[in-house]
């Protein structure tokens, strides 16, 4: 028997993957009860129910363990959780649960479970499962190595119930340079990215094709600039404060020194687009 | 192991003379947990661990994981068997000519109607919204409409 719309592709999303597996298991259980087919919406409903049932058992077991000062639930917590869940339908012996002389493990819910295991046939899962934690999943998985923790390989000051530290390769500095690492991740330093050629506001190429180079002819390394302010200048013109201490070194030999005004002055007087006042370069809007 | 520690505490607290009963229960529990290792639940262990991990349940003991898996399997089986009884009751009540009844017996389909009736006793409310249909026969006989 197959449900009417069963998907065959393996989904890489962990939630879809696990719900698909539960769907197969639920359809197997329904088949063993006696059904020949199932509506897809009913199957989705039962899958969701089974998931919620699992999680609510876990949640109530954990809460009763935490209430008893423990971090790991044991069988008594689980039996308590069963009793809580089955109290809706009711089970035999529910009235005697919390009396002193009746031990917890003789509750009717648990006895029903024992009887179920003994009487029902085994239904192994139908399909082979690939390893659940795939490396290309987009959801980060919290590493959980309880067994390794208990064997004492981790330092003793960390409590057992905390998740593991991330892999040491994520925080240990490797031998590569900072820039190499950034290049590997396709980032670049911000000073490299904000070049005068990239942004028109800060461009000096407005006056012509002047390449921005350093004194030695290499590409520009870093820029310092201020936020542009619009200022009303003489003759009603408006000037936009461009930058201070701009390192310009073009073919005409301008320097980046703001005190040395004459080359820049020469630059500005060429086309009238630039103005230099009190060490700040303005560009005509 | 936590089980044994709690067991000792429980023994110290209860001073009744029903110690033999407790020993029987403990022996039964131990046997049951051992038998769980031979019984393979339908829901795989990894999946149960995944969902229990989402609720904060961390336990290295496999038997407890199997216990939870078996409990969920029992729950789903109970719901399904209740729905089966509803379905059979519906088929018994619908009295048509013999040919139709035999056809329905062979095709037992778990529908949303039966499931919602079965789940109502478990406190899960799955009711479809009422709607106005074109003809009176719409939605009456879901066994002949396979979706």
From TrEMBL, chain A:
Gene3D superfamilies: Histone, subunit A (1.10.20.10)
Domain of life: Eukaryota
CC per GO annotation: transcription factor TFIID complex
Keyword Nucleus: yes
Residue ranges occupied by any Bromodomain associated domain in the UniProt entry: 15-91
Listed SMART domains: BTP
Chief subcellular location: nucleus
Keyword Transcription regulation among UniProt keywords: yes
Localization per Swiss-Prot or TrEMBL: Nucleus
UniProt keywords, alphabetically: Nucleus, Transcription, Transcription regulation
Record's protein name: Transcription initiation factor TFIID subunit 8-like isoform X2
Pfam families: Bromo_TP
GO molecular function terms listed in the Swiss-Prot or TrEMBL record: protein heterodimerization activity
InterPro entries noted in UniProt: BTP, Histone-fold, TAF8
Organism: Punica granatum (Pomegranate)
TrEMBL record, chain B:
Source superkingdom: Eukaryota
GO MF annotations in UniProt: promoter-specific chromatin binding; RNA polymerase II general transcription initiation factor activity
Compartments in which it is found: Nucleus
BP terms from Gene Ontology: transcription initiation at RNA polymerase II promoter
GO CC term (a single one): SAGA complex
Keywords on record: Nucleus, Transcription, Transcription regulation
Principal location class: nucleus
Function (record text): TAFs are components of the transcription factor IID (TFIID) complex that is essential for mediating regulation of RNA polymerase transcription.
Entry similarity comment: Belongs to the TAF10 family.
Protein name in the entry: Transcription initiation factor TFIID subunit 10
Organism of this sequence: Punica granatum
Lineage of producing organism: Eukaryota, Viridiplantae, Streptophyta, Embryophyta, Tracheophyta
